[in-house]
Design goal:
alpha+beta; Deoxyribonuclease I, Chain A; 2 domains
Length: 232
C-alpha cells in the first residue's frame, strides 16, 4: 500500500499455527523538502489515517530538535514531527549516543524510529556499521517481540485444565462459584462499550480474565497443564 513516492506503507502479518495472528504496520518516510504544494512531505500526509493499530514509523524525517537530538541546541524543521509525537504519543526508539547521519563537520539524529504504544518499545534498535550505504545516513536495524514468542510464553504459564464438567454437575459448587464471582464484581461499575476508551476496554478485559481465572482455579481445579493442554 503506497501513499506517494516518499512514503511506503506495508502491513506485516505474523502467523501462529499457520493462521494470521497479528498485524504490524510499517511506514517508511522520506520527509522531502519543497514538495509540490510547499513544505515537507509529512505536511501533506493524513497521519491519523495512516497510523492505525500497531504502527512503526521509520525514515529520514529531516528534522532536528533537542527532544531527540543531543547534538543540536535549536529546532530546525521540527514543528510537524513534534506535533506528530505530541498527538500520537509514539515511543522514540533512537538512543542519544548513536547519530544516524554524519555531515562534513557535524553529526545528527534525523532518521527516527517511532513505535505506537500498542507496539511498545522495540526490543532492539541500533546502527549497523557493517552495512555499506551510498549516502551519509547510517543503516538502522530494529526488531519487536514476535507474536510466536508471546504465545509461547502465555502457553507456558497457562492456567490448569479446569474441570468445567464437574463444576457444572455439582449444584453446590456452582452456587459457591457464583457467590465468589458476585463478591469479586460487586460494586464494580459497568463499562459502556460505546463510550469507553481503548485503554478502559483493555483494562476491563484484563480484569474479567484475571477474575475468572481466580474463580475457576478455586472452584474447578483440574490436572496440571502440559505442553499439549488446552485451557477449556
Amino acid at each position: 500500500m503506497a501513499e506517494g513516492p516518499q512514503v511506503q506503507c506495508l502491513d506485516v502479518w505474523e502467523t501462529v499455527h499457520r493462521r494470521k495472528g497479528r498485524s504490524t504496520r510499517l511506514i517508511n518516510i522520506y520527509n522531502k523538502a519543497r514538495v509540490e504544494g510547499g513544505g515537507y512531505t509529512i505536511d501533506h500526509l493524513d497521519l491519523s489515517r495512516l497510523i492505525v493499530g500497531r504502527t512503526i514509523l521509520a525514515g529520514d524525517f529531516n528534522a532536528r530538535s533537542p527532544a531527540w537530538d543531543p547534538w543540536v541546541s535549536s529546532r530546525h524543521n521540527a514543528g510537524t514531527v513534534e506535533r506528530l509525537i505530541e498527538r500520537h504519543q509514539p515511543i522514540v526508539n533512537n538512543n542519544d549516543y548513536q547519530p544516524t547521519r554524519w555531515g562534513k563537520n557535524c553529526k545528527s539524529i534525523i532518521d527516527l524510529t517511532l513505535s505506537t504504544r500498542n507496539v511498545g518499545e522495540l526490543t532492539s534498535w541500533g546502527i549497523d556499521p557493517d552495512r555499506a550505504t551510498t549516502s551519509d545516513h547510517e543503516v538502522i536495524v530494529f526488531a519487536w517481540t514476535p507474536l510466536r514468542a508471546i504465545v509461547a510464553t502465555e502457553e507456558a504459564i497457562a492456567a490448569p485444565n479446569w474441570n468445567i464438567e464437574r463444576l457444572c454437575a455439582d449444584e453446590q459448587a456452582m452456587a459457591e462459584a457464583a457467590e465468589h464471582w458476585r463478591l469479586l464484581s460487586e460494586g464494580r461499575p459497568l463499562v459502556d462499550s460505546h463510550a469507553a476508551t481503548e485503554e478502559e476496554l483493555e483494562a476491563e478485559a484484563f480484569w474479567i480474565q484475571n477474575s475468572l481465572k481466580i474463580v475457576l482455579d478455586i472452584h474447578a481445579p483440574g490436572k496440571t497443564a502440559c505442553a499439549r493442554s488446552k485451557r477449556w
